[in-house]
Amino acid sequence: MNRSALPERLTDFVGQEHLLEAISQHLRSAAGLRLVVLRGVLGSGATAVAIEYLHRTYPRHYAAAEWIGSSDSDETGRFVSRALNRFREVGGSALLVLDGVASPERLSGLLPIDGPDVLITSSADATAWAGACALNVAALTPQDAMGLLCRYEPGLPMPEAERLAARLDHSPEALTHVGRQLSRKLSARQVLDMSHAELLELLRRGGICSPTERIRAAVEALAPEWRFAQDLLRALALIGSPVFPSRDLGRLVHRAPDLMPSVDGLPVALVVEVLEVLSRRGLLHFRDDGMVELLNLPRLVSLLVVDAPARSRADRIVEALVIALDIDRGEPVHRAAAEQMAQHILALGPDRITTREGRSALVKLTRVHLRTHHHHHAVEQLSRFRAAWEGGTGEPWEAEMDRHLAQAYEGVGNPHKAFESAVRAMEAEARRLGARARLTLADGYAVARILGIYDPAVALRKAEEVEHQQAKWLGESDCETLRTGSLIARLQLRCRLPDTAADQARSVWRAQCNVLGESDQETLETLHLLGEALEATGHSARAALTCYRDARKLRRKVLGEDHPATVESTNSYVRVKASLTPFAN
User: Fold this and answer.
1) Distances from the Cα of 138 to the Cα of 145, 262, 279, 500, 539, angstroms
2) Which of 183, 246, 404, 412 has a 20 to 30 Å separation from 253 between CA atoms?
3) 288 lies in a domain?
């Protein structure tokens, strides 16, 4: 066989000794079809391993060898048949190498069982190669990658070689091209200081010894994990928060699979591998408290200057992060980090969030403002959402947004706007779920409660109507029915009906003790309300004192000494006790 027809041996080949030994061992010991498939993504080094094996064994162990590239062309069958005829003419053992086979089905029936040893490089799934020994070609080991760089730059310090090899994902193609640049005009420090866009441009430019198409493959070979990692970094840079709970990053897989971009079949379960890639590159690290911290966040701004498709993928990941973020669970440090992330997310434009689930999740994040009593910020954010998103379509986020708006307006002291928002939420839920739905009835309770701030008489009639509907559709002992009953007692007290309010509060309190328990916060609130009603009658001060005393005792136990509700019961108890013993020192 004419050696000039074979690819030249690579002078910069390093490592992969275990693969070379595995190929040799299988081809020597296999019975029947002797076939080995080297599987790897473009640029992983499968072709380089095949070339090295070819030159190590031919003509030392094989009488003939043939290399067929671009083996998915229409002439594949003719090339293989020609090679087999040459092998018969030469006689003896032979090696056939097929490089870059993407469609295994095209080779079906072409390879005889008693034919030559066959070595194939392919990116197809291992299950497509029935009867073959499939060997996965991973990137070079860190030690081999550093050795390859040091071949080009013998004086390269080991720490810089290690960092540069890690940044190139130990990809043979990328290491080779950058190594050649090191021996010509660039230093390792210059490459390490490049932005990712600049590094990709360096790889794309190729050069005399590295054709552009091969360098494009090397760029693609920066691994699907890294391509997705780029988009994840862009999304995190768009959000701008330096920390993110690692627990919520894991929830990306479970909460938003339809939003995650699929890059060459990248499974979303590789989120963990992606984070490890970014950690190795020094772009983030895992803190002991369970946080993922972005490093050099200002440098990531360069990732924002991207083409439209990349920006679209980043926006989809932003939306997936919004859905995955949970501000209600975990240890205090996790909740604090989640709330910090939520603050940054809420600063983004609402037009970036396009799906039903994403919009619902973004609306829920405004609870961060409500919890911290930044009601003006909540009003501003939710008003932006309302202006940007088309309403009236019956989506769940519409009612949720108006619920939060009602709470925010109430917080800024605008009960009329709060009432309007609560009514919109109730009407939206009624259209979506019906008038009998639990959420619709709960919104009716909110309407009555807010209306009671400035018109208790009208609010009382509304609350009685809601309680009647809840008793009918949810049951008289349902916790929400009882909550509305407690509201009715409070509204009766505001309407200066203390005796009626006391009877109502006593009835509700007894029912809540049976249903919720005497230590439940709503039960304790009704017990304190009963004390207020009894005190307001003017003839039941001692009974009121007993209510305040019991409420104070249980609130201390459940809520703590300094809780506002405990302080309220304590002050009421002290006041009534002083009124009953006016001459006490």
Assistant:
1) 12, 21, 19, 79, 86
2) 404
3) yes
